[in-house]
Design a protein that fits this description.
The chain is mainly beta. Among the domains are: about 25-160, Leucine-rich repeat, LRR (right-handed beta-alpha superhelix); about 360-500, Leucine-rich repeat, LRR (right-handed beta-alpha superhelix) (Alpha-Beta Horseshoe), CATH 3.80.10; about 515-555, no CATH class. Strands 1, 2, 3, 7, 8, 10, 12 and 14 form an eight-stranded mixed β-sheet that branches. Strand 15 and strand 16 form a beta hairpin. It is globular and about 80 Å long. The chain starts with a helix and ends with a helix.
């Protein structure tokens, strides 16, 4: 199940250009998207559902006027010139500060490019597979380069083995690194690209100069022999305090890169994105009580880890934080935890040893493991705090689900492709609904939302899918229909929105009376305290206070 959702995300990244909407406007054969009231980015155009192909020599202006407003051109957007083989040259103005992901990928007709000294960032695969690109002029203003930005260009292919520089950024180690390599970066190095030393199994030590302004995520991913990782003193952005053998972002106290000899200082508050990813030599590490967040992919594929103590200070564990830690048999989950990311413990020894059925991580519904019986009615344990991303992805046998009013978030793809679901209640306790959480739930005809304040809810990308369903009804609280109709995260996927949820109507007979009081009493006596409708006072619990609140409603 989890591997399938990872594949879905990768496919989404590949297909997104074809799914995205057309540009905001076009001037002189160039398409633009508004960034704000003053700035635009160059983008691609869609003509009759086909991409417009830029060709020949393109001169991007520093500013463009449309409909009486003049905008500064500050960015070349994602996929802007993707697969434009007839593009022969492009002039980038000094107003541009960023070249986005995939911006010129597979522009095979490009032979040279001059990047102005206004640009500071070059995105993922920005010039990848530009096979004719032999000359690249990169200014010292560029400090951040993402992964594979220049891979399979004539320029990169012609570079000798060893550490390849793009301007003053250490871009990629090319070829096989000799065992026992102690890396010295050239004087004045300004940045280290994302994945620059990925899988350099021969790297044993490196010193980060005090001139470096940007260290890309996962720059040292898969360097199992790395034992010494030191930032030179005097660096204004990064440090290696207390001889920790790690790179720490000074201002945020985030550990962004570590190795098997790292000792996490007790001043660190976050273990960053991919900080120890694929550090197979790491066999154990102490996480101090200062740490509040473990980021996405932080310890991914640390196969040497067998156990880890997560302190009570930690409130958040990110996506795939410990995924593929195949030796991890045990870990502690603190009561302080408020969020667990998708796939956080996938393919660990701990997960593989769990019995089939709904697997919990602490108080978080983590994943349904194994084959779900047809017509399953899912009930969560009392006090469940969250439904982790992908927990029920593809569970077509799921017929109904009772989300407790203690749940605060529904993760990305949580109920993706649950075709058997026909209705669902979303309690007022929910403050976050992830990307495509209910996408492709094609049997879903009724959604009951008890959320009374949409402004406090974080809504993900296409949380109910990207299709309009005229037969689907959104049921909301009295007086809330206009708010839901004004929210683009909700209204497009519903044929109608109706105000037929009455505060206190526990048994849903469209009346509030003594039968609802009896229903709440019955729930309390049976220990069934998860109903959204029964949480009359909205405090996340069902008890005598709700009975009193219900009596007040009836009397008033």
């Amino acid at each position: 199940m989890k591997q399938l959702i990872k594949t879905t995300i990768l496919l989404l990244a590949i297909l997104l250009p074809a799914l995205a909407s057309a540009a905001d406007f076009k001037v002189d054969s160039i398409y633009y998207n508004r960034i704000n009231d003053n700035e635009v980015e160059v983008t691609y155009g869609l003509i009759f559902d086909h991409r417009y192909q830029y060709h020949g020599a393109v001169i991007i202006p520093a500013a463009v006027t449309y409909d009486g407003t003049t905008y500064s051109v500050t960015s070349i957007g994602e996929w802007a010139f993707l697969r434009c083989p007839r593009l022969t040259s492009v002039v980038i103005p000094n107003s541009v500060t960023k070249i986005g992901d995939y911006a010129f990928e597979e522009c095979t007709g490009l032979t040279s490019i001059v990047i102005p000294n206004s640009v500071t960032k070059i995105g993922r695969q920005a010039f990848m597979d530009c096979t004719g690109l032999t000359s690249i002029d990169i200014p010292n203003s560029v400090t951040a380069i993402s992964s594979y930005a220049f891979d399979n260009t004539a320029w990169y292919n012609n570079q000798p083995d060893g550490l390849v520089y793009a301007g003053m950024v250490a871009y990629r180690y090319k070829g096989t690194m000799p065992s026992g390599t102690n890396m010295t970066l050239k004087e004045g190095t300004l940045g280290i690209a994302i994945c620059a030393f990925m899988e350099c199994t021969g790297l044993t030590s490196i010193v980060i100069p005090n001139t470096v302004k940007e260290v890309g995520v996962m720059a040292f991913m898969g360097c199992p022999a790395l034992t010494s990782l030191v930032v030179e003193s005097g660096n204004p952005r990064y440090d290696s305090r207390s001889n920790c053998n790690a790179i720490i972002e000074t201002a945020s106290n985030t550990l962004i890169a570590g190795c098997k000899n790292t000792i996490i200082p007790n001043s660190v508050t976050e273990i960053g994105y991919g900080a120890f990813a694929w550090c197979t030599g790491l066999t154990g590490i102490d996480i101090p009580n200062s740490v509040t967040k473990i980021g996405d992919y932080a310890f991914e594929a640390c196969t040497g880890l067998t156990s880890i103590d997560i302190p009570n200070s930690v409130t958040s564990i990110g996506d795939e934080a410990f995924a593929d830690c195949t030796g991890l048999t045990s870990f502690t989950i603190p009561e302080s935890l408020t969020y667990v990311g998708g796939y956080a413990f996938d393919s660990t020894a701990w997960y593989n040893n769990q019995p089939d059925g709904l697997v919990y991580v602490g108080m978080f519904a983590y994943d349904y493991k194994g084959t779900m019986p047809s017509g399953t009615n899912m009930t969560f344990k009392e006090g469940t705090l969250g439904i982790v991303g992908g927990a029920f992805h593809g569970c077509e046998e799921l017929a109904s689900v009772d989300i407790p009013n203690s749940v605060t978030y529904i993760g990305d793809f949580a109920f993706y492709n649950c075709k058997g679901l026909t209705s669902i209640d979303i309690p007022n306790s929910v403050t976050s609904i992830g990307d495509e959480a209910f996408a492709w739930c094609t049997g879903l005809t009724d959604v009951y939302s008890y959320i009374a304040d949409l402004s406090r809810v974080s809504s993900g990308y296409e949380q109910f899918g990207d299709y309009y369903s005229p037969g689907r009804t959104l049921h909301v609280l009295q007086g809330m229909a206009d708010a839901y109709r004004a929210d683009a995260n909700w209204y497009p996927c519903f044929g109608r929105i109706v105000e037929d949820i009455y505060l206190g109507d526990v048994n849903r007979d469209l009346e509030v009376n003594i039968s609802d009081v009896n229903a709440v009493i019955d729930m309390i006596l049976r220990g069934n305290t998860s109903s959204s409708a029964a949480d009359v006072n909205g405090d996340g619990e069902i008890n005598i206070s709700d009975i009193n609140a219900l009596i007040d409603i009836i009397l008033n």
